[in-house]
Write a structure and sequence with these properties.
single chain, alpha/beta, Rossmann fold, about 20% strand
Length: about 270
C-alpha cells in the first residue's frame, strides 16, 4: 500500500491557501491517533520548564509539517529546523510557512543518517520516521550528538506487536510499503538509544486495542478505498459522518489508557 499518491492528491486540495492548509493540519490532528499522543508529550515538554528562554528544536522527518506547525505555537521563542529527504515537501512547507507569516521556522533537505549539529537542539522530535530508515543506529547517534546536555528526544514509531498492521495483512507483510521494518521491540529500541549514548529512556505502548479500532476507522479503511479509486474522495465526507464519532471515542480512550501492548511506541530519551 502506497501513501505517497494519496499525499500528493491531498496536497493539491489543501495547498491552495494557508487557510486550507491549517484546516488540513487540524484534520490530521483529529484523525491521526499518533498526533494525539505526540501533542500530549509536546505539551508536557513545553510546560515542564526544563528549558527556559530561547530554544532550538529539530523536527526530524517533518513530512507535511503538521508537528512543526503545532510546535511553533507552543513556544514563541522556539527556533525550529524541520528536515526531510523529499525536496517537494520541503519547498511546499517553506512556501506555506512564509505565506502564513510564521517566524523562526526553516525547512531544509537532510539525510538523518549524516545530519549532525553538535550540542545544538533542546528538543528533537521524530514521528513515523525510524521505520523508514535501515541505518537506525547511525541516526540515534546523530540525535545524541545534536542534543544539548539537557535536551530530550521524542520518537513515535510502530512497535513489533503488529506495527504497520502486519498481523492483519497477508504473509505478515507491512500495510505500508515504504517501511523497512514492521516495528520496534520496546526493549530493543531503548537498548539502541543507550548504545548511542543516551543516559535515560522511557517507552510506552500506544495504539492499544481501542486505538487499533480507531485507526482502522479513521485511516486504514479510507486509505484502502482511495487506493482502489479516487472516486472515493466524493464518498469520504459521508463515510466520516458515520464513523468519526466512534473513531474519536476510541482515540480518546487510547490516549488516556496504559497499554500492556500496542502497535505503536512513544519513546523518550535524555542525553
Amino acid at each position: 500500500m502506497q501513501y505517497d499518491p494519496i499525499k500528493r492528491s491531498l496536497g493539491k486540495v489543501f495547498n491552495k491557501t494557508p487557510f486550507l492548509r491549517k484546516m488540513f493540519y487540524k484534520l490530521l490532528d483529529i484523525l491521526l491517533l499518533r498526533s494525539w499522543h505526540v501533542r500530549k508529550e509536546l505539551r508536557k515538554w513545553a510546560a515542564s520548564g526544563a528549558v527556559k528562554g530561547n530554544v532550538n528544536v529539530l523536527d526530524a522527518g517533518s513530512g507535511f509539517g503538521q508537528y512543526t506547525y503545532f510546535m511553533s505555537g507552543l513556544n514563541i521563542h522556539a527556533s525550529i529546523l524541520a528536515v526531510d529527504v523529499k525536496e517537494e515537501q520541503i519547498a511546499d512547507c517553506n512556501a506555506f510557512f512564509r505565506k502564513a507569516l510564521i517566524p523562526r521556522v526553516v525547512f531544509e533537505k537532510a539525510d538523518l543518517t549524516t545530519f549532525v549539529m553538535n550540542d545544538h537542539f533542546d528538543l528533537i522530535l521524530s514521528v513515523d520516521v525510524m521505520e523508514h530508515i535501515a541505518e537506525d543506529e547511525k541516526v540515534f547517534a546523530n540525535f545524541h550528538a545534536s542534543l544539548t546536555q539537557k535536551g530530550m528526544l521524542i520518537i513515535s514509531t510502530p512497535s513489533d506487536q503488529g506495527g504497520s498492521d502486519v498481523h492483519d495483512h497477508d504473509h505478515g507483510e507491512s500495510f505500508i510499503d515504504e517501511h523497512v521494518r514492521d516495528g520496534y521491540n520496546i526493549n530493543d529500541i531503548q537498548e539502541k538509544l543507550k548504545k548511542a549514548g543516551f543516559s535515560r529512556t522511557e517507552a510506552a505502548y500506544t495504539y492499544g486495542k481501542p486505538g487499533q479500532v480507531g485507526w482502522k476507522l479513521s485511516m486504514k479503511y479510507p486509505i484502502l478505498m482511495l487506493n482502489t479509486s479516487k472516486l472515493f474522495f466524493i464518498l469520504l465526507p459521508f463515510y466520516y459522518i458515520l464513523t468519526f464519532p466512534f473513531a474519536l471515542l476510541f482515540n480518546y480512550i487510547d490516549l488516556h489508557s496504559k497499554h500492556k501492548s500496542g502497535t505503536g511506541l512513544l519513546v523518550k530519551a535524555w542525553k
